[in-house]
């Protein structure tokens, strides 16, 4: 099975206006997703917000089923929130820790690190930054040594760093954490929508994803999965507004949600998930990987360009620098030619935030992130337009 790129581009109105290579920031949504969002907003306009939500009750419930299928979970283990950062903090701040040491990857997302620092200061916890291996991925051997020492209360890892190509060996980390009985929290905001994800295979107890990036959903949407065994143990106790569908006293992850929410965005998120599932995550991964490697090869052939990507497995994020130009200058020049990219600081390291040393020497690089609706012509446009 392969991606019908022509059909995908016909479904993506923005491809007629821009060359969009900023999918790690926010993808171009397919028109069925945006039609779903706008359609519900129109219905709110016509009959009222609460009434439109009641009318869409079954469709809202199906969003949880779709998200559960996407990651191999059950609907009761999934909550929908407004951002990945909010979802991550909502769960991590409530996790019951049996150990006083929190292990985290060196490329953990900066907001996650700030939350962990607050918890560490409040509860007297120790933050331990895991080493990277020679490929720039988390060193699973170092992780195992830290787990063997005992006293670990949680392991946190960003699956795909916001400024890196590497796909972290999350399943290996998950197996080690399960064997040690230590909760594993996986930030999948950059991997959901470009890679197949299964929470059992990954071995994670918590998985956080966002709608706006590779999933191609609306902004202001995200979700979190919490393994059933953890739900009843989250502290402080969750509100009991959401009970399981079976009528038992088990709390559902939806208890993490606030009552007031963007129903149109939620429906759009569900439509984006269904769109991705219809295409298939394996074909999506194959096309994204192929395009990203093709872009790296094109960039490497330009004498003034340096590609920064590392990792044994690499995804759709490509980072590079151009001699004699700042990343912001490159981004702005490309923007003037309707080519969308972003910038990012490298290396995306958690160590300074944890250890408070002098800031690391960082390079601000250009970040081009491809998706399956991009084409070889899009890559050629980027190369031709470089200063």
Automatic annotation (TrEMBL):
Residue intervals of the Aminotransferase class V domain: 21-382
Family from the record: Belongs to the class-V pyridoxal-phosphate-dependent aminotransferase family.
Cofactor(s), by name: pyridoxal 5'-phosphate
Record key words, sorted: Pyridoxal phosphate
Organism of derivation: Pleodorina starrii
Stated name of the protein: Aminotransferase class V domain-containing protein
């Amino acid at each position: 099975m392969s991606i019908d790129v022509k059909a995908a581009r016909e479904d993506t109105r923005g491809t007629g206006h821009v060359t969009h290579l900023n999918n790690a920031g926010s993808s171009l949504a397919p028109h069925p997703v945006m039609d779903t969002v706008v359609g519900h907003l129109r219905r709110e306009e016509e009959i009222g917000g609460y009434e439109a939500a009641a009318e869409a009750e079954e469709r809202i419930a199906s969003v949880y089923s779709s998200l559960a299928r996407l990651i191999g979970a059950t609907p009761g283990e999934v909550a929908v929130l407004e951002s990945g950062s909010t979802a991550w903090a909502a769960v991590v701040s409530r996790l019951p820790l049996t150990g006083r040491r929190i292990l985290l990857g060196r490329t953990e997302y900066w907001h996650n690190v700030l939350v962990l620092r607050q918890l560490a200061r409040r509860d007297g916890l120790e933050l331990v930054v895991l080493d990277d291996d020679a490929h720039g991925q988390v060193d699973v051997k170092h992780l195992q040594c830290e787990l063997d020492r005992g006293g670990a209360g949680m392991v946190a890892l960003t699956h795909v760093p916001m400024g890196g190509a590497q796909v972290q060996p999350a399943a290996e980390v998950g197996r080690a954490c399960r064997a040690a009985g230590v909760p594993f929290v996986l930030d999948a905001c950059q991997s959901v929508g470009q890679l197949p994800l299964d929470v059992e295979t990954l071995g994670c107890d918590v998985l956080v994803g966002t709608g706006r990036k590779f999933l191609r959903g609306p902004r202001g949407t995200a979700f979190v999965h919490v393994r059933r065994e953890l739900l009843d143990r989250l502290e402080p106790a969750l509100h009991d507004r959401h009970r399981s569908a079976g009528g038992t006293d088990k709390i559902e992850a939806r208890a993490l949600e606030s009552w007031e929410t963007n129903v149109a965005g939620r429906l759009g998120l569900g439509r984006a998930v269904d769109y991705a599932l219809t295409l298939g995550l394996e074909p999506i991964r194959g096309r994204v990987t192929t395009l990203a490697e093709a872009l790296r090869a094109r960039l490497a052939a330009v004498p003034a360009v340096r590609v920064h990507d590392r990792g044994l497995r690499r995804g759709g994020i490509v980072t590079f620098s151009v001699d004699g130009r700042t990343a912001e200058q490159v981004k702005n020049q490309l923007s003037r030619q309707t080519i969308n990219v972003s910038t990012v600081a490298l290396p995306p390291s958690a160590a300074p935030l944890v250890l408070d040393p002098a800031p690391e020497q960082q390079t601000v690089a250009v970040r081009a992130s491809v998706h399956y609706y991009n084409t070889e012509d899009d890559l050629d446009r980027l190369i031709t337009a470089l200063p």
